[in-house]
């Protein structure tokens, strides 16, 4: 009986001690680590939402950022190729033959200390590659634009931005009709 009383007293003492230790934590405030321009550099895994017309497609992609350049080792081309090659079987065959296309996206960065983010202003270049259609290589040029700023967020070390394919030209001729292709990256986490 004496052992149970001692054990109960010990358990009560531990519970009281834990209660007081948790109360002392209430005064601590979260102080974010201020972002630096160099924090943007790194490898990212991103959720990409591609939309054209009423169709949306989601996939996970990887990209790297270094020295004011975002590098996509494998830029998503499916919607671009399907805008050019309307036959689904031929489009899938063309995509298989194209393989990976690298795209480099330049940006300028500026710290917004009040919100603890790095603001990214993108300067897209054209994306050029060749699409094989019925044994003939078609020179494809895609005009990309960034309508809004992107952000590197210090709170969760993520990057968020978007691009649009505004126009596609095949062998110097604009693809018509053409619906804008939007590439939105609502979140990408640094590896």
From TrEMBL:
One Pfam family per UniProt: DUF4840
PROSITE patterns the record matches: PROKAR_LIPOPROTEIN
Record-given protein name: DUF4840 domain-containing protein
Organism this protein belongs to: Chryseobacterium arachidis
């Amino acid at each position: 009986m004496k052992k149970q009383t001692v054990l109960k007293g010990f358990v009560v003492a531990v519970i009281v001690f834990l209660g007081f230790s948790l109360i002392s934590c209430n005064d601590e405030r979260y102080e974010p680590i201020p972002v630096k321009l160099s924090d943007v550099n790194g490898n990212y895994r991103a959720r990409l939402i591609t939309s054209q017309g009423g169709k949306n497609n989601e996939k996970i992609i990887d990209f790297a950022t270094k020295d004011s350049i975002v590098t996509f080792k494998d830029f998503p081309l499916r919607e671009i190729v399907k805008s050019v090659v309307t036959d689904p079987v031929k489009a899938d065959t063309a995509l298989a033959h194209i393989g990976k296309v690298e795209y480099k996206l330049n940006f300028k960065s500026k710290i917004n200390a009040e919100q603890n983010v790095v603001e990214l202003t993108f300067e897209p270049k054209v994306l050029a590659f060749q699409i094989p259609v019925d044994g003939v290589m078609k020179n494809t040029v895609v005009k990309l634009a960034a309508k809004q700023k992107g952000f590197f967020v210090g709170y969760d070390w993520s990057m968020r931005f978007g691009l649009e394919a505004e126009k596609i030209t095949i062998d110097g001729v604009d693809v018509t009709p053409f619906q804008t292709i939007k590439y939105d990256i609502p979140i990408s986490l640094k590896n």
